[in-house]
Each structure stands twice: as C-alpha cells, then as structure tokens.
Design goal:
With 675 residues, this protein is an alpha+beta fold. It has 17 helices and 38 strands. The chain has an 8-stranded antiparallel beta sheet. The longest helix has 26 residues. It binds adenosine-5'-diphosphate (ADP) (2 copies) and magnesium ion.
Length: 675
C-alpha cells in the first residue's frame, strides 16, 4: 500500500499556496494555511481547510518565522510542510528543524539544499562531474587584483554574481576593466544586504543567451527522471516574466543531453523531490550549468501542461516515501504551453513595483476557442485585496496551451485581453505587446529580448497593432448597442406612444478617432448581430456584450476576439493586443467641425517631479536654486529593495524641494519642482 500524508501545512502565501491547496484537495489531503496579520482575508486562507495566524506583516516575523510555523504544525496536527518557493523553501535550518520535530518536509533533504544553494559550491560540483559550467572561477573573490586577473583571463564582458544570490539579485555585468572596481563593491554590498553573505564570484557574460532549464523529479530510492525543458528567456532585471515549454531553440539531442546532465547532478547530491537545473545557452547552442533550484519553481505549470504530470502531487507522494510511478521512457511532451507572470508593476516606469488595492479583479475564464480547456490561471488574490509592499509583486500566473506554439500564443492573447484588473498598475498590456511582437512569435528569443525590443520603459502608444480598423469596428458595434439602449429607454419614456424604433431612429453613423487615424463607420442590426461597415470592409459582429461589461468578447466575421472597452465621458478606453488607446466617437458633423479647429500646441515637459512609487526618499541630489540638465539625477526613492532614480526631463533650475531625505512617501507625492 502506498504511503499517504493526511494533513499538509503550507508555509507560504499567494498563488503558490493556493496552487498547493488545490492539489491537496484533489488528493483528499487536508490543507492548513498560515498567514500574517496582513493576510487575514487572503485567498489562501479561505481555500485551506484550516488556517493559523503566525505573526505580523513583516516576513521575518511570519512567513520566515521557523518556530511559529513549527508551532502551527503541532497545534493543527499536520504531518508535513510544503514550503512553496521563496521564503523558507531553500532554508536548510528550517528543513533540519522539521526533521528534529518529526515533520515531513515536502522537498529535498538538507544536504542537497545546502550543496546546491550555494552557487560557488554547486559550480565546483558541476565541474567535478563534467557538467559544463560558464568559464569563470569557483572561489570567492578576495580582492580587486584577483578579480582583475580572472576577468582578464576569461575576457570581458564578465558577470559578477553573489554566491548566495537568487531572484535575479546580486548580479552585475561588467563590460570593461575600468568598471570592475565599482561593480565589485556594489555587488558585494548588495549581496551582504540581501543574503547576509558577501561572497562573489565571476564568470563570462554570455552574450545573447537563452535561459533554458530542466525539470527533474526524483524519489528517495535513487530514481531520477527529467520532464524536459522550459525556456525562460523573457526576463527583466534577470528575472523571468514569461516562460514556455518546450523551448523553440532545443533539438531532441540537446534535450537528451541537458536532461542527462541534470540527472547526473541530482544523483550526485542524492536529490529527491522536484527540482530544476538551470542552464544558460549561447547562440551556438552550447549549454552551461547556472544553478540548481531545489524547490518547486514559479513556472512549473508549463511543464505540467505539456507532460500531464502534476508536480505538486508527485512532490507529496515522494515526500511520503513512495517510489516514482513512471520512468524516463514514460515521460512524453506534447503540445505547447506558455506562462505569463502577472505582476503588480508598471512597465511604463521601467517595471517599478506598484502597491495598492485591486479595486476590480477578474481572471479570464475562456480561451479563444470559447472553452475553458486551454487556459489556466494560478491566482492568489481576491477583488478588493491590497497588494502589500512586504511581499512579491506577482499577482497571478496566466498559463495557456495548445497543440503548437501558435495556438498557445493565440489563447494567451485572448486571455490577456480578458483579464480585468483596475486600481493597481500591472503588466498585462506589456504582456500583450510581447505576444504581439513578431520576433517573439518567431521564437527568436534571448535574455536581452525586453531591452532590445522595448527599451528600459514600455510605451503602450508605440505598440504596433496589426489591425486598428478592427478596433474601430468593435467600438462602432459597442457604440451602436449603447445607442440602441438609450433610444429604447427614451422611447419608452414617451407617454402614450408606441415604443418602436420608427419613433426614435437610432443613430448609426459615426467618425471614430483612434490616435491620428479616423474611420467613418456605419452600424446596423442584422439577424446574427451587428453589421459594421468601414469603407469597403463589412463585418458581422456577434457578441453577448452588455453595457457595463468591461470586456468585449465575441466574433468578428467568425474570428474570436476579446478586448477591454470602458466608456467614460464620451471616450472609450480600449486595451487590445498591448495597445492602450483612447477612442473618440463623434457624429460626422461634430468630426467635421472639430477638424476645422486650430491644433493645440504640444504640452510642455513637466516641471514637477513626483514619486513613482511608495517608499523611502533615499536621497535628494540637488539643492534649491541649482541648475540641472536633462538626464541629471534629482532624487532617489527606495522600495521593495530597489533604488529608483528620479531623473530630470529638461534643463532648468530647482525652484522648490518639498520633502526631506529619509521621509516615507506615497506614490504620486510631489518631491520637487523646477522652473
Ligand atoms: P523561479 O526561479 O522559480 O523562476 P524567481 O527567481 O522568480 O523563481 O523567484 C521566485 C521567488 O523566490 C521570488 O519571490 C524570489 O524573490 C524568491 N527567491 C528566489 N531565490 C531567492 C533567494 N535566494 N533568496 C530570497 N528569495 C529568493
Ligand atoms: P538567480 O539565482 O538570481 O536566478 P541565475 O544564476 O540563475 O541567478 O541567473 C539569473 C539570470 O541572469 C539568468 O536567467 C540569465 O538571464 C542571467 N545570467 C546569469 N548568468 C549569466 C551569464 N554567465 N551570462 C549571461 N547571462 C547570465
Ligand atoms: Mg536562477
């Protein structure tokens, strides 16, 4: 008979806690949530069979509080703990404490975690096993002389990395010798501050690389299989934003080879549970070991969708002491899966995290095929929740699959446009723009993709839309439906008259303005829906859209389309395929009159500088009366462990400084003014 766990405590929050609870339910296992004071009303608390409050909002006092978590295990009678990712998932002290208390840890053993958790140590191990590593050194850098000689030997550009690093932090690219000294100082102090460990090592910076990783599963009896790869090259700040499986770059032979290397590494540390071996792959398809993550990875769903294996279920079974149910030959990958990480961050300010309340929040439910089959949302929030600055800014993960990459992209594009979030800056528009990007569609990826295609800041207005006229057609149909409704309402108000369309003809001709383009359209009710005519193009729009629905979902000449449409004060705000635009609908007469008015001059560049995010005012780099030039740093705001420079957009003189260094500030608070 197989071993079974009865009650699992999940030492995490957000989407990953919800994800684990879902599988526990299916397996008939009771789930216990733990939560901080800030998470009393969180979704994972609602979903779990039972929940225990473990401390304040500050992670060290709650989700990182080992003793409080152990106490919660005892008080609820749980027999195992799943750590999710982040927090205590790769903490050997935690795993050892659980062992002492006879609590099962749903993850690998402490030795495997400590050997793989340290990048210098795992590099050494990989080298000794003949697993290719990036050219570099496997000793902590002692001083500048040592760094200089290694960098010169391997050749610039090089990368400095914190041995204890993770989550993309503690990494610096150095292009030339003169920058090495400063980079070394910054990197080791960042490493010390973030990881309490200032050991740095150095490796060759691979140009235009891809990040491709291998998922493995191993049991406690020495059986190890790999479940193929995931490509995670769409990154910002060395952190993943979109992932997919399989990789459009890998050949079967490479997959086999990388899989073998990953298994070799896992076996060498007697690994059990799920784990990921990350590789960096250069343009010539050479792959090099980066690190091993000894936990469930954020992007694990794409592997689940192409292999049909529930990784959380496997982790639970392995932890309970069961043998793997399948061998390598049984692992089959089919179809294609994509994941988009929905972050509370603002791509328009260079992806700065944002905090605030999710005033409106609705997850997509259908794919472009109109069914629920190809869309999966791993969510962790409710409408009305506050995105708290103490935690990761990821709101949810949107995952789609299809029989091939194009189909998975099609569903992703649909689902992104059906995803409705208001009240907090988020990256959905950016994700849609990535999906619309021809290079992305061709699978020509590299970790520089975002930088190269979008620059440091995403400008939605620059997003190229394949078919602006289609937007005009949908807005035309929506406007017609609104006009119909108004006409009916007015008609029925007229006393003693028959409510007939003949009484009040519905207006049906408009000029629709999107940016600089204007479309003259005509709309009419037809048997199937609404016929919209623009020039020579005639479309039949079918939809069950109703006024007040923020999402238009329907078909245009039988092609499925979803689009966000919000009507406010005579203007439609639309969001589609990454394009965010205001659309004006005018009567032909109004449009004619407007075109005769003189054009307004372009508004002046701003004189006022506001905080882009809530946080701490770290520095004010100017004084009142000082002359500043365009591009000069005015102040620095820190939040979520990131420093953000406020840069002058023009030349001028500082006329007033409103705040002092060290002040805690809100997003949108005025910092200083120029004249
Ligand atoms: P993945 O490798 O699964 O894609 P990420 O790099 O996005 O994961 O990190 C997942 C989460 O774990 C994030 O919240 C990240 O900040 C956190 N994290 C990862 N490694 C570490 C680490 N060494 N120390 C602290 N937090 C980490
Ligand atoms: P973390 O623990 O923060 O995830 P990794 O070592 O996995 O750190 O690296 C994170 C990302 O940094 C990689 O996905 C890749 O984009 C980039 N990177 C790491 N090492 C190199 C390298 N040698 N050359 C180029 N890019 C690299
Ligand atoms: Mg990594």
């Amino acid at each position: 008979m197989s071993n079974k766990l009865k009650t699992i405590l999940i030492a995490n929050r957000g989407e990953i806690a919800c994800r684990i609870i879902r599988t526990a339910r299916v397996m008939g296992i009771k789930s216990i949530a733990v939560y901080s004071e800030a998470d009393v009303n969180a979704l994972h608390v609602d979903m779990a069979s039972d929940a225990v409050e473990i401390g304040s909002a500050v992670p060290t006092e709650s989700y990182l509080n080992i003793e409080a978590i152990i106490e919660a295990v005892h008080s609820t009678g749980a027999d195992a703990v799943h750590p999710g990712y982040g927090f205590l998932s790769e903490n050997t002290t935690f795993v050892e404490r659980l062992e002492e208390e006879n609590i099962t840890f749903i993850g690998p053993g402490p030795e495997a975690i400590s050997k793989m958790g340290d990048k210098i140590e795992s590099r050494k191990l990989a080298n000794s096993l003949g697993v290719p590593t990036v050219p570099g050194n496997s000793k902590p850098i002692q001083n500048l002389t040592m760094a200089n000689s290694i960098a010169t030997e391997i050749g610039y550009p090089v990368m400095l990395k914190a041995s204890a690093g993770g989550g993309g932090k503690g990494i610096r690219i150095v292009f030339e010798k003169s920058d090495l000294k400063e980079a070394l100082e910054v990197c080791s102090s960042e490493a010390k501050a973030n990881f309490g460990d200032d050991r740095i090592f150095l490796e060759k910076y691979i140009s235009n690389p891809r990040h491709i990783e291998i998922q493995i599963l191993a049991d406690k009896f020495g059986n190890v299989v790999h479940l193929g790869e995931r490509e995670c090259s769409i990154q910002r700040r060395h952190q993943k934003v979109m992932e997919e499986a399989p990789s459009p770059f890998l050949t079967d032979q490479m997959r086999e080879e990388m899989g073998k290397n990953a298994i070799k590494l896992a076996k060498s540390v007697n690994y059990y549970s799920a784990g990921t071996v990350e590789f960096i792959v250069d343009e010539e398809r050479n792959f090099f070991f980066l690190e091993m993550n000894t936990r469930l990875q954020v992007e694990h769903p794409v592997t689940e969708l192409v292999t049909g294996v529930d990784l959380v279920e496997q982790m639970i079974k392995i932890a309970a002491g069961n043998k793997l149910e399948f061998d390598q030959k049984k692992v089959k990958m089919s179809g294609w899966a994509l994941e988009s990480r929905v972050y509370a961050e603002n791509p328009e300010t260079g992806f700065l995290p944002s905090v605030g309340r999710l005033i409106r929040y609705r997850e997509p439910t259908t794919s472009a095929f109109g069914t629920k089959k190809n869309v999966r949302v791993d969510g962790g929030v409710n409408e009305g929740d506050e995105i708290n600055r103490h935690y990761d800014p990821m709101i949810a993960k949107l995952i789609t699959n299809g029989k091939n990459r194009d189909e998975a992209i099609k569903h992703m594009r649909w689902a992104i446009d059906e995803y409705y979030v208001r009240g907090i800056a988020n990256n959905l528009g950016f994700l849609a723009a990535v999906m619309a990007n021809p290079r992305f569609q061709a699978g020509e990826l590299s970790t520089n993709f975002i930088d190269e295609e979008f620059g440091a800041k995403f400008i939605p207005e620059k997003t190229k839309h394949e078919d602006i006229e289609l937007i005009a057609i949908i807005v035309g149909a929506v406007n017609f439906m609104l006009a119909e409704k108004r006409t009916h309402v007015n008609a029925s108000k007229i006393d003693g008259q028959i409510c007939s369309r003949d009484v009040m003809p519905i207006k049906n001709e408009w000029v629709i303005e999107i940016g600089v383009r204007k479309f003259s359209i005509e709309a009419r009710r037809s048997e199937k829906g609404i016929d919209v005519i623009v020039g020579k193009r005639k479309c039949c729009v079918e939809t069950d859209w109703r006024p007040s629905y923020p999402i238009f979902a329907g078909r245009v000449n039988n092609n499925p389309i979803s689009m966000q449409v919000e009507y406010n004060n005579g203007v439609y705000k639309i969001q589609h395929f990454g394009l965010v635009a205001e659309v004006k609908v005018m009567s032909p007469l109004a449009a004619e009159m407007l075109s005769r008015l003189p054009k307004k001059s372009v508004s002046e560049q701003t004189n006022k500088f506001f905080s882009p995010m809530p946080g701490l005012l770290l520095s004010i780099d100017v004084e009142e009366g000082q002359h500043v030039t365009q591009g000069e740093t005015l102040a620095t705001v820190e939040a979520m462990k990131m420093e953000n420079k406020i840069v002058s957009e023009k030349n001028g003189v500082v006329s007033k400084i409103y705040l002092e260094i060290g002040e805690s500030i809100e997003a949108g608070q005025l910092i200083l003014e120029l004249k």
